[in-house]
Structure formats: C-alpha cells, structure tokens
TrEMBL record:
<keyword id="KW-1133">Transmembrane helix</keyword>
<comment type="subunit">
    <text>Component of the Sec protein translocase complex. Heterotrimer consisting of SecY, SecE and SecG subunits. The heterotrimers can form oligomers, although 1 heterotrimer is thought to be able to translocate proteins. Interacts with the ribosome. Interacts with SecDF, and other proteins may be involved. Interacts with SecA.</text>
</comment>
<dbReference type="InterPro" id="IPR038379">
    <property type="entry name" value="SecE_sf"/>
</dbReference>
<keyword id="KW-0813">Transport</keyword>
<dbReference type="GO" id="GO:0043952">
    <property type="term" value="P:protein transport by the Sec complex"/>
</dbReference>
<dbReference type="InterPro" id="IPR001901">
    <property type="entry name" value="Translocase_SecE/Sec61-g"/>
</dbReference>
<feature type="transmembrane region" description="Helical">
    <location>
        <begin position="46"/>
        <end position="68"/>
    </location>
</feature>
<keyword id="KW-0811">Translocation</keyword>
<feature type="compositionally biased region" description="Pro residues">
    <location>
        <begin position="126"/>
        <end position="136"/>
    </location>
</feature>
<comment type="similarity">
    <text>Belongs to the SecE/SEC61-gamma family.</text>
</comment>
<keyword id="KW-0472">Membrane</keyword>
<dbReference type="InterPro" id="IPR005807">
    <property type="entry name" value="SecE_bac"/>
</dbReference>
<keyword id="KW-0653">Protein transport</keyword>
<comment type="function">
    <text>Essential subunit of the Sec protein translocation channel SecYEG. Clamps together the 2 halves of SecY. May contact the channel plug during translocation.</text>
</comment>
<dbReference type="GO" id="GO:0065002">
    <property type="term" value="P:intracellular protein transmembrane transport"/>
</dbReference>
<dbReference type="GO" id="GO:0006605">
    <property type="term" value="P:protein targeting"/>
</dbReference>
<dbReference type="GO" id="GO:0008320">
    <property type="term" value="F:protein transmembrane transporter activity"/>
</dbReference>
Length: 136
C-alpha cells in the first residue's frame, strides 16, 4: 500500500534513506549466501575452456582472413599481368598528328559534289526559337 500523500504532494512520513540502504545491503548479503559457488578446480577448468575456444576462434578467423587476402591478391595480379603493356616501348613524348594537306582531303558539299571550299562554318550552340506570331 502506498503512503498517503499530503496536500502539496509530499509524503506525510519522510522516508529514512539510510534505513532503506541498510535494508538493501542486508538483503543482498542474504541472497549472496544462497548462491552455490563453483570450486577452484571448476573455475580453472571453465577459464581454460574459455581461453582455448577464444584462441581457436581467433586462429580460425586469422587464417580465413589471410587466405582470402592472398586469393584476392593473386586474382588482381593475374588480371594486371594479362593487361600489362610491354616494357620495351619507348616513352611517349608527344602525340603523333598526321600531316593533312587540303589536297589530300576529299571535301564534298551538302549535295555530295566535290568542292575546294575548306571554310568552316560555325554552327549555333542552340537552335534559335521560332519567332512568335504577332497579333494583328
């Protein structure tokens, strides 16, 4: 049952915090006396088991990581060696540009007829919009 509340929301009887804490410690001690503790040999055996399983698991994942990383390294090496450029080529200094003279170019006009007019016409960047019809 809850204690009665006063008009201002305070308890009529103030709680003794020290008594509650002492009661908690006594009940905790009583519960700890009921616990069945393992013997020293059981504790050592279970600790060794936990350490052994931990070491085995760490070794398993380390070997798995090592094997997978070596496998991926071999795959990358095989792909790069297959696509490697021969090493005996001289280094490229400037790109090779063909010499094109107007006489070697087969120029044709819009109708497909040969022409000697090599002027370049600048095309507009975007088509001009059609003019809006004027209202009359």
């Amino acid at each position: 049952m809850l204690p009665a509340m006063g008009p201002r929301g305070l308890l009529k009887k103030p709680m003794n915090i020290l008594a509650k804490f002492t009661n908690y410690l006594r009940s905790a001690k009583t519960e700890l006396q009921k616990v069945t503790w393992p013997t020293r040999e059981e504790t050592l055996r279970y600790s060794a088991l936990v350490i052994g399983v931990t070491v085995f698991t760490a070794a398993f994942f380390a070997s798995l990581d090592f094997g997978l990383s070596k496998g991926i390294d071999l795959m990358i090496q095989s792909r790069t060696s297959a696509a490697a450029v021969p090493q005996n080529l001289p280094p490229a200094t400037t790109p090779v540009v063909p010499d094109i003279s107007p006489s070697s170019v087969d120029a044709r006009d819009a109708n497909g007829l040969p022409t000697n007019d090599f002027t370049v016409q600048q095309l507009p960047d975007s088509p001009t919009p059609p003019a809006a019809p004027s209202a009359q």
